[in-house]
Structures are given as C-alpha cells and as structure tokens.
Amino acid sequence: MSSSNNGLLRRGSRGPAVADVRTRLVALSPDHLGDRSGLGGPEIDAQLYDEALERAVRDFQQRQGLIVDGIVGPETFSAIDGARWSLGDRILTHTPGHLQHGEDVAALQERLNTLGFAAGRVDGRFGPNTERAVRSFQRAYGLPGDGSVGPDTFRAFSDLRRSVSGGSSTVLREQERVRRSGHSLSGRTVVLDPGHGGDEAGATVNGLREADVVLDLARRIEGRLTAIGVSVVYTRTEHTCPSEEERAALANRAEADILLSLHCDSHDHVDARGVATFFFGRDRRTSWSAVGESLADILQREIVARTGLANCRSHGRSWRLLQQTTMPAVRLEAGYLSHPEDASRLADPGFRDTLAEAVLVSLQRMYLGEDDTNATGVLHLGDLRAYLASGGH
Ligand SMILES: [Zn+2]
C-alpha cells in the first residue's frame, strides 16, 4: 500500500489504491481466488471499492485463513501482495530486516515441516527458523548448506515429492527416543472440550448440530487415547453447557497436560470452508504459547493431509478459554457446517474417525518435539500401539 494510504480500504472507498488492489486480485491464480465476476472489464469503475471487489476480498481472505471482513488492511494487503509467488518463481533466502514474504515461502515451510524439518509456524515469512530448517534439509540431502533456496534445492524438493509416503512402523522403530517417558503420551491427562452442549446447539444446518458432532468426535478421540493409557476428562456432558470460564477452571483443577477444544464453524458466506486451529497468542514476546502453537500447527497439517479439508491454517488468539487455561490449549474448528461438502463429510462417522486419528497422532508428535522426523499424514493408531507393545523395538 502506498504511504499516502494508511487507512483501511472498504466498501465505498475510492482512489488509486483501490484500483491497485483490484489489479492484483485479477492477476491471482484460481487457487487464491475463485469467483472474480465483476472484478474487471470496461464498464467497471476501477477506483471504486464496489460490491464485486468486496466479494473477491472475502473469498481471498477465506482461502488465506484471514478474518473474513471484506476490508483491506495491512495484513490482507500483504497477503494479496505475497500471493502472486509460487514456489520456484524466485530464489528464497533470509534477509534480516526485510523478510521475504509470500505464498512461495508458505509452501516452502509446509514442505519442510511435512518432511520433518521444523520450519516452525507456516506464516509465509522467511525468517531464521525457516533458514535453519532449509540448512538441515540441504545437509541431509547432500547439498551445500547455504540456507537459500535456489534451483538445486527446488529440484531436491520435487524429487522427494514422489518418495515420501507410507512406511510408518519402521520409522517409529528407528525412533528409540519415544521410549523415554518424556515423549510418551501414556500417563498424561487430556481435557476434551466439545463446544456448546445442552440446549445450546452451536451451528445447526439441516438438522446437523455442532454440539452433537463435536461430542461424537470427542468420544472417538477418547477411545483412542484411553487405549494407550491417557486419562481423559470432559468439560461437559450431553446435557450441560458450562461457560468458557468454567471449562477453563475445570481443566486447571484437573491439572491436565493439554486441553483440546472441539468446534465446527459456520458462516453466511457460502464459500467459507475448511479447517483451522487456534492457540493462545496475542503478542509473540509476552503472551504466546509456544507449545500450543506447535500442537495447533501439527494438528492442522495432519488433518489437512488426511482429509483434504481446505487449509485455513493455525492462528494465535486471546480467546478466554485459551487465555485462562494454565496448560497448552488448542481449539479446532473442523470444517464448516454451512458448506455442503464439509457438512456431508462431518455427518459421516468414518470421517470423524479420521479426524480422531489425526488428533491422536498429533498429540503424540507434539511430545516427540524436535525428535519428530515423521512425514505428515502417514502414522496410524495401530503403528503406535504395535510400537509401544514391542517396548520400542
Ligand atoms: Zn462452536
């Protein structure tokens, strides 16, 4: 955004900055913007922020996991600006003071994380964590470890794309470190917080009630957790709906290791869909849960890899439940009941099993921490059980 335009752009705004946003949106790939009707053409007043432009901005925000408000502020503008890059378009490198930012960086981070090189949060900014992960990747694959991503490193990524799949028990067996109690899930306490409850149904679409969907999901997660020796505590029953404060207080009294809050989303914008995770994070220096962030990231990746739900990413929030719990807490928004495809999948018990499996594996991976080198989307409960039963051999 030009320096002359510090304000937010919204419906009714007018000027060259509006025309600039419009041009950038028109140039985006269909991945980033679906409906672009009324965005361009001779009859359009390019400098006016009209209804069509607002619709396009909302669509873009939804796909990026941004707040869907139809307003272009600094965050949305920077996402629009970064969205034109795809991985391989330019050389990526860490430039302190002026971080490269874009979809290509986000794709790189996803790729590194999926391969087991911890690039940290997928935020589309090439910072020191991304550089460190690139260096480890390069060393592991016999490339000069210079930390910048040029043609050789791109080639290594695309070669690997074909080879990463399956083979989980072996991977686990090699990870002797799981045996250390610090890495084990067994003996821990997990609080499951199915949203809403009692008379409060949450989002309800075509008779499908959010409260029921997430309670059923919680039970499937509970079954898997208790099978490996984890204690599970619920914040509510079928018939109760405690406040967020009461839920947090209960989790604190239980001295739980983790709280997982389960919700589905809904939105009056019909295109809204996909999965998002949230952890406590308001200010990176002072109010930020690193463990919550790590679990939210892993969970997000595991669910996307296993279900193909649209990736609305993980986000720091200072919501009451996240703020008032003393243990790492993550809120999962597992798809939109208002989106026909998401809803029909959520109605399917088999799909909820897949979600439950993703939760279990994510919790285990979180405790593996730095030692977690598993590829995303390949571990299953059976592997963990067989591994634990074999005493880690
Ligand atoms: Zn909800």
What does this 3D model show about the protein?
- One of its GO terms (molecular function) is N-acetylmuramoyl-L-alanine amidase activity.
- InterPro entries: MurNAc-LAA_cat (IPR002508), N-acetylmuramoyl_amidase_3 (IPR050695), Peptidoglycan-bd-like (IPR002477), PGBD-like_sf (IPR036365), PGBDSf (IPR036366).
- The structure is a single chain.
- The protein is an alpha/beta fold.
- Helices cover 42% and strands 12% of the residues.
- It folds into three domains: 16-82, no CATH class; 103-163, Orthogonal Bundle (Muramoyl-pentapeptide Carboxypeptidase, domain 1); 180-389, Aminopeptidase (3-Layer(aba) Sandwich), CATH 3.40.630.40.
- The chain is built from 14 helices and nine strands.
- α7 (168-174) runs parallel beside α14, α8 (210-227) packs across α13 (349-368) and α10 (290-307) packs across α13.
- Residues 1-5 and 162-181 have low confidence and may be disordered.
- The chain binds zinc ion.
- The site of zinc ion has 5 residues, from loops.
- Zinc ion (ZN) is lined by residues 195-196, 202, 210, 263.
Please describe the structure with a list of short key phrases separated by commas or semicolons.
393 residues; alpha/beta; Muramoyl-pentapeptide Carboxypeptidase, domain 1; Aminopeptidase; 3 domains; seven-stranded mixed sheet; two-stranded antiparallel sheet; 14 helices; 9 strands; binds zinc ion
